[in-house]
């Protein structure tokens, strides 16, 4: 490989939450590969560069093009939202490379939706948490159900990515049922739509109200509290246990 590939995540939305290293990688790149929505959010940074962009379902085409351009000698950035290593393109790029090309790729961290959305809700991820995508495009729905069941049983705070689309609504409603079997109905659940983007919505509801929040969509992240998560003045808090252990 004559060029280089950097797989990067641009954070949740606006440029305030992009890391300096990711910004620099974009500035130094010649070719920018990514899904239209993410490129739109960083349009000022990519002006004048060669852009390879197509629809959401063409990830293989996009990453194959990225590898091709890097083989030809270009400095390429492949862009995901959030962190490229969390339901992003870092895995696919590595899978497509030949073994001897592995040294030509660099993966840079970004702010993922779980932590970005947690910051808007308060401090819900202070204790052990699980992250589950409800998208069954690439994962068998029964496996997702098993993971939900085990996360609920294990009392993990649970972050849901890809919670519901126009066509895929079933697992969203099932998730409420599964968690209600193991957690109190009043368990706080945080919902963030378009976090750190225009149109941001932040809401905290009870677990038994979650299934009524039909506006939840693919730009939303959901955080279900564990058995000790509380709500204080509109902030979700999962206590780490300091106060219980060190004060009377
Ligand atoms: N690589 C990304 C995740 C891609 S999966 C990351 O690290 O964040 C896409 C899912 O991420 C969406 O369905 C949604 O659940 C979540 N998401 C992405 N951007 C978001 C935002 N600005 N606000 C809330 N959720 C977001």
Could you give a short description of this structure?
The chain has 248 residues and is an alpha/beta fold. Helices cover 30% and strands 23% of the residues. The protein starts with a strand and ends with a helix.
What does this molecule look like?
The structure is a single chain. The chain is an alpha/beta fold and 248 residues long. The chain has 2 domains: 4-111, Tetrapyrrole methylase, N-terminal domain (Cobalt-precorrin-4 Transmethylase, domain 1, 3-Layer(aba) Sandwich); 114-237, 2-Layer Sandwich (Methyltransferase, Cobalt-precorrin-4 Transmethylase, Domain 2). 30% of the residues lie in helices and 23% in strands. The protein contains 8 helices and 13 strands. β12 (230-232) and β13 (235-237) form a beta hairpin. The protein is elongated and about 60 Å long. The N and C termini lie far apart (63 Å). The structure holds S-adenosyl-L-homocysteine (SAH). S-adenosyl-L-homocysteine (SAH) binds next to α5 and β11.
